Amino acid sequence: MGVPAALFQPGQGLVRQRDTLLGAKWPGQRIQRASGAAWQRLPLADRATGAGAACAAAQPSTRQSPGASTSGNSAGLNGTHHASSNGVSLNGASMSASLLPAPAVLEAAGWAAIAAGGAALPQTQPVMMQQRVSAAPNRLRIFSGTSNPALAQEVACYLGLDLSHIKIKRFADGEIYVQVQESIRGCDVFLVQPTSPPVNDHLMELLVTIDACRRASARSITAVIPYFGYARADRKTHGRESIAAKLVANILTEAGANRVLAMDLHSGQCVGYFDIPVDHVYGDSVILDYLASKRISTGDLVVVSPDVGGVARARAFAKKLNDAPLAIVDKRRSAHNESEVMNLIGDVRGKVAVLVDDMIDTAGTITNAARVLHAEGAREVYACATHAVFSPPAAERLSSGVFQEVIVTNTVPVPPERSFPELTVLSVANLLGETIWRVYNSSSVTNMF
Fold it and tell me: Is 156 strand, coil or helix?
């Protein structure tokens, strides 16, 4: 261990200093004090003749030499010390009892010179504990899976970083191979991998990548899952059904994830399925900013929930739009990915209707709701959703002319063959990047919303 700068005072000898300095974890962090120990020594008046100072109890010092490293890499003493009742022995040289005129703060390099036989002792001015220090090595690492590399690249650009190097390939039988191609020992790793179609392949890839990072001695692993695919299986609606959302949460935890960062889960209860911390962020802020740019009059706007289950989401969305009125489309689902609209609760006649949902899969629900809104006299209909899953025949339904515009985010990549003129894709990279930075710095995420 390196020896930081030390202080000798008249009548004091070799003691332990109670307060040590810890280096900054991220740029701009102030030095902090913590319980620990660092050596204190007296400057030797004349090493050749054995002049020195007597030993006694010393007071703790909070002064640090600018030459001393806060990370323990400063130059150390090339010898041992032996305390006795008459004085202190340093590499066999005895220090006699003599008083020094004034205390001195020495650089660690000065002690190295003493141990090497040098005579000159450099002196520096003390510095304050709260002085800002130079940035420690960056321990933040961003990795991308094969699900949405474009989004991961945007997140890395927001953070001013390059994507870390990783090798992912598939064998002929479909098995996934992952190798981290740089050292991440002691690093805070963030893996950006939404479980977009094919869901099972991308989920398995995420699990294997987490395991690779855990075996590479990463300090912490955060699974950044912008789209959590199994969130719809969050409860039992019929007998003998599985709750796949809880199962996937358990698998992620067992694989080695220390934290999950998800966006717009299908239901808030999914957060409780995890036994590790979950940061649940909302993409509606990105969509709201875009809608505000369209300058739609508040009196002409009505927010519509496409089903009863999304009322809470639509109400929160409407509140952020100057407390716009709310309407609800009542539907009855006959089978998975199939729905039948029954009636409308609320008034939309002559207004601009904004349908709000967390995802668009086959677009059956939201398209049927749009047709009912037009039948009830809505002037224009906008569709807003965070996750553009767009399973066939979603593109055909959304481009059938019932929507003025379909607004989604890039949590799930939209391939060119599923794009259409009414589609607008907004980026959530800045939102995810800011959340990652706050998690890395142990700052509040709630304050963002």
Answer: helix
Looking at 136, 165, 194, which one is the last position of a domain? 136
> Are 298 and 321 members of one domain?
yes
Considering the domain architecture, whether residues 107 and 206 belong to the same structural domain is answered as no
Q: What is the pTM of this model?
A: 0.69
Domain extent at residue 300: 284-427
**Nearby residues of 11 by Cβ (< 8 Å), 6 or more positions away:** 53, 54, 56, 99
Neighbours of 1 (CB within 10 A): 10
The answer as to whether 446 is a domain residue is no
Q: Name the pairing type of β-strands 88-90 and 93-95.
A: antiparallel
Q: Judge whether residue 239 has pLDDT over 60.
A: yes
Residue 340 forms beta bridges with which residues?
A: 332
Look up residue 153 and give its amino acid: Q
Q: Count of alpha carbons within 13 Å of 148, Cβ hemisphere only?
A: 30
Looking at residue 308, its pLDDT comes to: 87
Q: How is residue 35 written in tokens?
A: 């319980």
What is the mean predicted confidence (pLDDT) over 366-380?
95
280-303 tens-digit pLDDT:
999 999 999 999 999 888 889 999
Q: Can you read off the two tokens belonging to residue 41? A: 């020594």
Does one domain contain both 209 and 275? yes
